[in-house]
Amino acid sequence: MIQRIQTLYLLGAAILMALLFFIPTAHLTTEAGTAVFKTYELVGADGVVEKVPSYLMFIVLVAMWLPLYIIFRYKNRLHQIRFCVVEMVLLVGTLILEGAYCYRLYTLFDEAYEAFAFEIRWPIICPVVALLLTWLAMRAIFKDEMLVRAADRIR
Q1: What are the contacts of 14-17 at 24+ separation with CB within 8 A?
Q2: How confident is the model at residue 80 (pLDDT cuts 50, 70, 90)?
Q3: What is the pLDDT averaged over residues 124-139?
Q4: Quick one: which H or E segment has residue 91?
Q5: What mean pLDDT is predicted for residues 71-91?
Q6: What is the mean pLDDT of the chain?
Q7: In whole angstroms, how large is the CA radius of gyration of the chain?
Q8: Opening angle at CA 7, ends 67 and 10, nearest 5
Q9: What is the distance between the alpha carbons of residues 136 and 123, in angstroms, rounded to a whole number?
Q10: pTM for this prediction
């Protein structure tokens, strides 16, 4: 059901989570250089790559692929609604973990350097917009289910 509005909402949520995965979330600039924080790694000012704990990367990857799975479950709308709820929980978890990592990086750099600039980039809001899009998709799927049930009742 590619022509349905919920498909566009879910596709938008998947694209936003892919952007969050690939685009840097925060930049930390010191006199030694610039450190870049991505979902799966922290590239230090000296070029050293440090891996971020894998559960953040795992949650973002699942939150990126789950909307695509939901799109192709169009024959079972109740499962789509349940998976939308799971997606929204994952997105809230992503928000919490991203915020915690940014705060932790800020405190680490605050302890290590006297002068630094901490800049949060726009991809940090991708989970918020994806959460809104997933909620809109779930609402549209629920409306479709109610329409089908009303049509069955009339017969």
Answers
A1: 14/64, 14/65, 14/67, 14/68, 16/126, 16/127, 16/129, 16/130, 16/133, 17/60, 17/63, 17/64, 17/67, 17/91, 17/94, 17/126, 17/127, 17/130
A2: very high
A3: 95
A4: helix 77-112
A5: 93
A6: 87
A7: 19
A8: 35
A9: 20
A10: 0.87
